[in-house]
Amino acid sequence: MRLRTIALTATGAAAASIVGGLASKPNIDTWYAKLDKPGYVPPNAVFPVAWTSLYGNIATTSAKVIDTLRDEGRTAEADAYGRALAANYLLNGAWSWVFFSWHRLPAAAAAAALLTASSVDLTRRAAAVDPKFGAALALYPAWTAFATVMSADIARRNRG
C-alpha cells in the first residue's frame, strides 16, 4: 500500500467522520435522546467504536484496491473507484446533517438507503479486484443497511 494512497483514503474517512461528528455530537444528549427509538438500537457508546473501525477498514481496504488497480494498469478503474469512494464519504457525512442537525427523519432514512447502495457498490468493486478486498468491506454495507432500518423505524415512530 502506497503512503500517498492511504493518506488520501484516510483523509477522506477523517473528513467524513469530522463532518458527521459536527452534526451529531451537539444533538445526541438533547434531541436524539428524546426520540422514540426501537429496542434494537445499540447504546450510544457503540456508534463511535463501530464507525472508527469501519472508517479505518474502508480507508485501508480502499487504498489496497486502488493500488492494485494501478499496479495492474487499470487506471480508469482506479479513478472510478476513487470517485465512488469520495461520493460514499460525502453521503456518509451528509447523513448526520440530515438526521441529527436538520431533524429530517424520512429524508435521513432515504439518505441511509443511498449510503447503503453506495457501500454495496464499493464492496462489489473491491471484490472484483480481489475477493479478499470484498470480504474485508462486507461489514460496511451490512452496517449501513442496519442503519437504514434504524433510520426508517425511528422516522416511523417519530412522525410529526
TrEMBL record:
Q: Give the matching Pfam families.
A: TspO_MBR
Q: Which Gene3D superfamilies match?
A: TspO/MBR protein
Record-linked InterPro entries: TspO/MBR-related_sf (IPR038330), TspO_MBR (IPR004307)
Can you tell which superkingdom this protein's organism belongs to?
A: Bacteria
What does the UniProt entry say about where the protein is found? Membrane
UniProt keyword terms in alphabetical order: Membrane, Signal, Transmembrane, Transmembrane helix
The secretion signal range is: 1-15
Topology of the protein relative to the lipid bilayer: Multi-pass membrane protein
Q: Might you name a Gene Ontology BP term for this protein?
A: tetrapyrrole metabolic process
GO CC annotation: what is one?
membrane
* Membership in a protein family: Belongs to the TspO/BZRP family.
- The protein in question is named Tryptophan-rich sensory protein
Q: Which organism is it from?
A: Mycolicibacterium brumae
